Amino acid sequence: MGKNKIAILDLGTNTFHLMIASLTERGCQIVLKEKSYVKIGEDGISRGIITKPAKSRAIKAVEWFAEILKDYSVEEVIAYGTSALRNAANGRALIRDIYNATGIRINLLSGSQEAKYIYRGVRQAVDLGDSISLIMDIGGGSVEFILGNAHTILWKKSFEIGAQRLLDKFHRSDPVTRNDLTRLNHYLEQELKPLVTAVETARPKTLIGSSGTFDTLSDIYALKKNFRKDPARTERVIPMKAFLEIHEEIVIRSREERLAMPGMAEMRADMIVMASSLVHFAVTRLGITRMKASSYSLQEGILFSLIDDRRQAGLLSA
């Protein structure tokens, strides 16, 4: 097989991602990554719909991606939708509209499939070793938790408690009130009972985060300590003491004050309060003592799973 290009589109609740990779007999090389902050869950996710403005943003974003695919002469496109698209009453209608506008066919991932691919991406980025770690991916619509090591998944589950959903339920003032944070923790205690039960058996001590939330936390930490992140490094440590301090800064600030924090991405400034509170609940409730951030997540997991499948089929060299 000669070199060919493949694109992976991840159409998330908050962000649409495009990744282009060149495949060869021996593996792949990532050529390009782009993203668009579409926020298809905004103003509608709690009502189970995607609003007209969000639909328009979604179609425009995929049209932009389609132009990039032409420029790069991509031969194969794999597109997946996650929480908002799979749960919204008009999600499939939007998928049809995107296909009619771009010719790109979008498949829907179940929460379980999403968790499996997230694990596959993280396993490629982080040295999991033999010990059990808790992997966490925070999206706008859902949050995936996976218990596993370098060899296997022991347990996985997707919860429809993503940052946009929590923002609608609990972030009613800015800064958020302590009372609303208490209400949030009571809610998470109920919603995450299956996770608590699974962790009681596995007893992981390391949390590995694989989403934009953890990228932002890592960026804030790096700038606080005045060190430059190596873009080639796919595994980054966030000391627990540093996370707890950053979390406290985040929850006491208004949006304007959060934006002033070095390392805070503008598109994260709204959801970071709920996302960081989710992380805080996980580490304090589950006895986690170490935290890492993975540069790879769902998109990379889909790509590496595809490569594995083609190797097994004899289409790529081992």
Give structural notes.
This protein has about 325 residues and is of the alpha/beta class. About 45% of the residues lie in helices and about 20% in strands. The protein has twelve helices and eleven strands. The protein has helices spanning about 50-70, 85, 90-100, 110-125, 165-170, 180-190, 195-200, 210-225, 240-250, 255-260, 270-285, 300-310; strands spanning about 5-10, 15-25, 25-35, 75-80, 105-110, 135-140, 145-150, 155-160, 205-210, 235, 290-295. The protein has a six-stranded mixed beta sheet with strand order 8-7-6-9-11-10, sandwiched between helices. Strands 3-2-1-4-5 form a five-stranded mixed beta sheet, sandwiched between helices. A hairpin with a 2-residue loop joins strand 2 and strand 3 (about 25-35). Helix 1 (about 50-70) runs parallel beside helix 3 (about 90-100). The longest helix is centred in the N-terminal third of the chain and has 20 residues, at about 50-70. The protein is globular, with a radius of gyration of 19 Å. The model has no long low-confidence stretch (mean pLDDT about 95).
Tell me the layout of helices and strands.
Elements: E1 4-11, E2 16-24, E3 27-36, H1 52-71, E4 76-81, H2 83-87, H3 91-102, E5 106-108, H4 111-125, E6 133-138, E7 143-148, E8 153-159, H5 163-170, H6 178-191, H7 193-202, E9 206-209, H8 212-224, E10 235-237, H9 240-252, H10 255-259, H11 272-286, E11 290-294, H12 298-312
Parallel strand pairs: 1-4, 4-5, 6-9, 9-11
Antiparallel strand pairs: 1-2, 2-3, 6-7, 7-8, 10-11
Helix pairs in contact: 1-3, 4-12, 5-11, 9-11
